[in-house]
Automatic annotation (TrEMBL):
<keyword id="KW-0175">Coiled coil</keyword>
<keyword id="KW-0479">Metal-binding</keyword>
<dbReference type="GO" id="GO:0008270">
    <property type="term" value="F:zinc ion binding"/>
</dbReference>
<dbReference type="GO" id="GO:0090734">
    <property type="term" value="C:site of DNA damage"/>
</dbReference>
<dbReference type="GO" id="GO:0016567">
    <property type="term" value="P:protein ubiquitination"/>
</dbReference>
<feature type="coiled-coil region">
    <location>
        <begin position="201"/>
        <end position="242"/>
    </location>
</feature>
<feature type="domain" description="RING-type">
    <location>
        <begin position="8"/>
        <end position="49"/>
    </location>
</feature>
<dbReference type="InterPro" id="IPR052639">
    <property type="entry name" value="TRAIP_ubiq-protein_ligase"/>
</dbReference>
<dbReference type="Pfam" id="PF13639">
    <property type="entry name" value="zf-RING_2"/>
</dbReference>
<dbReference type="GO" id="GO:0031297">
    <property type="term" value="P:replication fork processing"/>
</dbReference>
<dbReference type="GO" id="GO:0005634">
    <property type="term" value="C:nucleus"/>
</dbReference>
<protein>
    <submittedName>
        <fullName>E3 ubiquitin-protein ligase TRAIP</fullName>
    </submittedName>
</protein>
<dbReference type="GO" id="GO:0061630">
    <property type="term" value="F:ubiquitin protein ligase activity"/>
</dbReference>
<dbReference type="InterPro" id="IPR013083">
    <property type="entry name" value="Znf_RING/FYVE/PHD"/>
</dbReference>
<keyword id="KW-0862">Zinc</keyword>
<keyword id="KW-0863">Zinc-finger</keyword>
<dbReference type="InterPro" id="IPR001841">
    <property type="entry name" value="Znf_RING"/>
</dbReference>
Length: 249
């Protein structure tokens, strides 16, 4: 018994392996010679009357000795293979879904880390800006103090030199008065001593003592200013080192 029992709608004869089969675009099949003869006289499908349904030839062969049981076994085997691949597909899909969930979680964590890093960068830039402002203010303050200290040291040195000159002058005058007094005393030996030279000597001694005191004060103040300048130099070096470490231009 043939597997294909349909007949040609034109000649009403069954299809077999000795004749070609023609399929129209509307889904109907006919013997190729029959449809060609029909096309020569008509422009529609012999079965459904569709307009110009012409299609193509189907090269089919028919075998009446087909082993149906073998075909069923092959069909079952194919079905089992299909089910096996379906299960494998499901397992792969599940693994991909888990991997995708893990990847999305990791991406979410990375986005959070990136957000935190951006926040840290902004905070660091703000802190660096504040440090830069502090360093600029300290640098200006140090420059101002250095300039003021230099002026103070210069003034103190000038005052010290002036006091030293006065001290030397009064010391010379005192020596001259003492020498003059001794000469007078030698000349007027036995005479009543005069008080005037002694008064001048006392006044000169007072001036010398005052100048020595002022000179000592000026020297102490000068030493303090020099020590302060040295400390400022150290602080300035520390500040420059801090600027280098922070990488602030």
């Amino acid at each position: 018994m043939s597997l294909l029992t349909s007949k040609c709608a034109i000649c009403e004869q069954p299809f077999n392996s000795s004749k070609n089969i023609y399929s129209t675009r509307c889904g109907h099949v006919f013997h190729y010679p029959c449809i060609k003869e029909w096309e020569a006289q008509n422009a529609d499908c012999p079965q459904c009357k569709a307009y110009k349904p012409f299609g193509h030839i189907l090269d089919l062969s028919f075998d009446d000795n087909v082993d149906v049981e073998k075909l069923k076994e092959t069909l079952h085997e194919t079905s089992r293979e299909l089910k096996k691949y379906q299960n494998l597909h499901n397992e792969t899909s599940l693994a991909l879904a888990k991997s995708r969930a893990a990847t999305e979680k990791e991406i979410y964590q990375l986005k959070g880390l990136v957000t935190k890093l951006r926040h840290d960068i902004v905070c660091h830039e703000m802190a660096q800006k504040k440090n830069r402002q502090k360093i600029c203010a300290l640098t200006e303050e140090i420059c101002t103090i250095e300039a003021s200290s230099e002026q103070t040291v210069t003034h103190l040195k000038a005052e010290s030199d002036t006091l030293r000159d006065k001290l030397e002058k009064y010391s010379t005058e005192l020596a001259m008065e003492l020498s003059k007094n001794e000469t007078t005393m030698e000349t007027n030996k036995g005479a009543k001593p005069k008080n005037r030279p002694m008064i001048r000597i006392d006044l000169t001694n007072d001036k010398i003592n005052d100048l020595e005191f002022r000179l000592q004060q000026t020297t102490d103040q000068l030493e303090k200013e020099i020590s302060r300048n040295s400390q400022l130099e150290i602080e300035n070096m520390k500040l420059k080192k801090l600027v280098t470490l922070l990488g602030i231009e």
